Amino acid sequence: MEGQKHHKKSKVIKIDSKKSWEHHISYATNQSYPVVVHFSAFWCVPSIVMNPFFQELASNYQDVLFLTLDVDEVKEIASKMEIKAIPTFLLLSGGTHVDKIVGANPGEIKKKVDNFIISSLSYKSMGTVK
Fold first, then answer.
1. pLDDT digits over 17-34, tens only?
2. pLDDT attached to residue 124
3. Helical segments of 1-130, H only
4. Which residues pair with 65 in a beta bridge?
5. Could you give the angle at which helices 106-124 and 45-59 cross, rounded to 10 degrees?
6. Which domains does the chain have, with CATH numbers?
7. CA 106 from chain center: how many Å?
8. Cα–Cα distances in Å, from 108 out to 20, 63, 102, 115?
9. How far apart are alpha carbons 3 and 83 in whole angstroms?
10. Is there a contact between 67 and 81 (Cβ–Cβ < 8 Å)?
């Protein structure tokens, strides 16, 4: 596969079970992909308002896994990741929690995600820039 250009557009993957969570986190860890997770709930207006922003953010990065998880649908993962408020955005590297942003603040989220991804991808490529 190396050498082939992938023209896939990054998108947000909905996590609907513990098995789905484990599969995607394992995949991202094996591929050394940074992960950005939006913990939300269908009844939470700020979470819903953040969905288009999160989709747009995901479309800007190819080698990053963007996940969304409804805390009421997958309570076990929300509890394990210590999600106390929504929306919460979790940044993971190698399956490990790196940073957390609580609340619907697009500017702060974009800044933190940009910095997280730049540092993750720089580390992954040993300092080379695309």
1. 999 999 999 999 999 999
2. 59
3. 18-31, 45-59, 75-80, 106-124
4. 35
5. 40
6. 12-124 (3.40.30.10)
7. 14
8. 28, 21, 10, 11
9. 40
10. no
